[in-house]
Amino acid sequence: MFLKGTKFQQAYVVDESVYSGFISLFRDENPLHTNEMFARAKGFKSRVMHGNILNGFISHFVGECLPLKNVIIHSQGISYSRPVYLNDTLELYVEVEDFFESVQTIEFKFFFENQNRIKIAKGKLSIGLI
Known about the structure:
There is one protein chain. This protein is α+β, with helices and mostly antiparallel strands. It has 4 helices and 5 strands, in the order βααααββββ. It has a single domain, classed as Roll (Thiol Ester Dehydrase, Chain A). Helix content is about 25%, strand content about 40%. The chain has a 5-stranded antiparallel sheet, with helices on one face.
């Protein structure tokens, strides 16, 4: 089904609708995310986008970009190494690490790069076939 080493790629943009939609849904209005002056005072070039927006992109990838729809996320972990800013274009790279036929589970590793080809986050994902 999914062979070890199979790769996928998907582009995302953290535009105003993604940013404002996240705030509207989850009410996280921490000043690092919402106050330009606060973020700059902390050493960032601008407001830092919420890290969990990337988790939403992972959910989209699993639910909409994989060639199967009979899947469910068992676990996902992500480590952030660089900030994401409004209007950044992100590329998600995903690779199958293993497929466990006996339990119908696929393990992936992934990372995000921004438009400058700088890795901003990486992680692991496990999904089950249902």
